[in-house]
Every structure is written in structure tokens, then in C-alpha cells.
Design a protein that fits this description.
Mean pLDDT: 93
InterPro entries: HTH_MarR-typ, MarR/SlyA-like, WH-like_DNA-bd_sf, WH_DNA-bd_sf
Distance between the termini: 53 Å
CATH class of one domain: Mainly Alpha
Order of helices and strands: HHEHHEEHHH
Oligomer: single chain
Protein name: DNA-binding MarR family transcriptional regulator
Organism: Actinoplanes digitatis
CATH superfamily of one domain: Winged helix-like DNA-binding domain superfamily/Winged helix DNA-binding domain
Low-confidence stretches: none
Shape: globular
CATH architecture of one domain: Orthogonal Bundle
Keywords: DNA-binding
Largest sheet: 3 strands, antiparallel
Radius of gyration: 18 Å
GO molecular function: DNA binding; DNA-binding transcription factor activity
Strand order of the largest sheet: 1-3-2
Structural class: mainly alpha
Number of strands: 3
Strand content: 5-15%
CATH topology of one domain: Arc Repressor Mutant, subunit A
Length: 163
């Protein structure tokens, strides 16, 4: 029986280990800052900020789950917590009575406005300010390629939010 596993070269292994390190450390760093400064986690902030930039500050729950990179169940629990805080409401989608959308309230928008400056400073400190403009372009292009393989629906949602 032969082993035809395409093992990683030394360079490939180093690239993978560095990526795995970032995938572990960066979310924990961002999450800690948000919890410390805003009493929300990164997933909840992703929901709030995602809604804040949408027309009418509303988005179907299924699309929001993709954008926030969470399961429908996890999203539902997080939205419930945000509802209790008065930052989000659920309502029937105007165009599809079977679907539910989350809507950012005025209080939620005010919360995003308070949270965003410290969050942006942390994103700058940990990512943006340590890379050159060329490296940021490379990072974006690399992430687009990886998302095409791992989560094309997330890439599509990101692209839709740029329009």
C-alpha cells in the first residue's frame, strides 16, 4: 500500500502554520477588545455593523448568518441577546412573508457609533497599520481566493456590501 498523500513542503508548512496562527490569535484579540470596551463579542459586533451599513439597516436572517459567519442557530441566539439590549428587532421581510429579517434599531445604531472607534483602532493596530498598501492588496486578494474555495457565499455577501 503506497502513501500518495501530497505532504506539505517546508515552505508550504510554514505558510500554513503562520495562517493557522493568525486564524487563532486574531479573532481572540479582536474579541477581547470588543468584550473589554463594548461588552459584545466579535460575532455580535459583526451583526450590528453588518446591519448598520445595509439599506434600512435590515437584512434577512439567513444572509446575516452568512455575513457574520455563523450558523442560523448561533445567529438566532445572538440576535435574541441583541434584542434584549434593545439594539436589534426582528420582523417579517416585506418581500417574503415567510422570511424574517433583523433590523438595527436607533439605539443599536448609536451603540455601533460608540463601539466602532475603538474597534477600528484595534483593527488598525493588529492588521492595517502593520502592512503596506501593497501588502493589504495582497491580503485582500489572498483572502478572496481562500474564500472562493472555503466560503463563496461569504465572499458574495462581502461583495454585495461593497455596492
Amino acid at each position: 500500500m503506497s502513501d500518495d498523500t501530497p505532504w506539505l513542503s517546508a515552505d508550504e508548512l510554514q505558510a500554513w502554520l503562520h495562517l493557522a496562527g493568525v486564524l487563532t490569535a486574531l479573532p481572540a484579540t479582536i474579541d477581547a477588545q470588543l468584550k473589554r470596551d463594548a461588552c459584545v463579542n466579535f460575532f455580535e459586533y459583526s451583526i450590528l455593523s453588518g446591519l448598520s451599513v445595509r439599506p434600512g439597516r435590515a437584512m434577512q436572517m439567513a444572509v446575516l448568518a452568512q455575513l457574520a459567519n455563523g450558523s442560523p442557530s448561533r445567529l438566532s441566539h445572538a440576535v435574541s441577546r441583541l434584542e434584549r439590549a434593545g439594539w436589534v428587532e426582528r420582523r417579517q421581510c416585506p418581500g417574503d412573508p415567510r422570511a424574517v429579517e433583523a433590523v438595527l434599531t436607533d439605539a443599536g445604531m448609536a451603540r455601533v457609533a460608540r463601539i466602532a472607534p475603538a474597534h477600528v483602532r484595534e483593527v488598525r493596530r493588529t492588521v492595517v497599520d502593520v502592512l503596506t498598501a501593497e501588502e493589504l492588496d495582497q491580503l485582500r486578494n489572498t483572502c478572496q481566493k481562500l474564500l472562493t474555495v472555503t466560503a463563496p457565499e461569504v465572499l458574495e455577501t462581502i461583495d454585495e456590501n461593497r455596492r
